[in-house]
User: What shape does this take?
Amino acid sequence: MSMDEGTILTTLPPDQLTQSSGMQIAIFRHRVSEILLHNTIYDVVPVSSKIAVLDARIPVKQAFKIMHDEGLSLVPLWDDHQQTITGMLTASDFVLILRKLQRNIRVLGHEELEMHSVSAWKEAKLQFYGGPDVAAIQRRPLIHVKDSNNLMDVALAIIRNEISSVPIFKSSLSDSSGMPLLGLATLPGILKFLCSKLQEQPEGYSFLQNQIVSMPIGTWSPHIGKTSNRQLRTSRPTTPLNSCLDLLLEDRLSSIPIVDDNGALLDVYSLSDIMALAKNDVYTRIELEQVTVEHALELQYQVNGRRQCHTCLSTSTFLEALEQLSVPGVRRLVIIEPRSRFVQGIISLRDAFTFLIG
Assistant: This one.
């Protein structure tokens, strides 16, 4: 059933997990491990693709303009002195820069973003947010994987470091000055490959038909009666954007459901939506504390148009949820009650992989 606000998956209710579900889960995870351990990153990356890379010396303002224009929420940074990729510029960096400049944005905004390079911002960020362990953070190398790594290693690198993607470096370079970057590995790409392989196995396909409400996965509302390790976070249209960003950064979330007074889903605000403020330097004319989430979403619509909320039902199968999460750009599904659209829970990519690999 399709709705203007999003897509709702409907399925016939399958058999629920039985009392022996522990054994079923163990067998299923063993199948998952076999697939991930016996396949490498080459099995999921495109044969040919375009990769955007920015020089770390580029001014911050220009960097974020490029990211906005190209629809990028993160981009690798090239260090010409070291002749390699040394970091990543993300939407979170844009949020942190805006908050740092908000105190005196009319005076410093254009100057800092026009004159300061991305590398200078990264160093300032460590000093400003790093605390007493700045030196240790500076010495930490870029998190990356090799093209020879198996898919289990790649998935664990992303999950354990709480990042959305990881650069893939060549195992060996024919010449020392060559570009080491092959591409970016993401969980959706791995998940799509994994789903196709699991459906070829009777045990895997059978387990994937379980309803998500019957499984120990996701974050749920207390009204549902399921226990969750994390609190379900939502926000209101009238919430100040700054408060919404606080939740996203502090809880390390990529997006948050926006609900009405009855808890019904209205929209979703994603951390990457902040890039809409780079359009025509909107960030220099607003104050985050005075802008509501509703206003921020309107700015997003003006730049990129309305979009669908990615939703599912508590009765959707695990396979249906995984197939949606394997679509690039979909990092979480909002679980809703079909008639009222009451937000019952959330299942994220991280939730899915944490369950899949135990």
About this structure: The longest helix spans residues 21-37. The chain is about 35% helix and 15% strand. Residues 1-16, 131-139 have pLDDT under 50 and may be disordered.
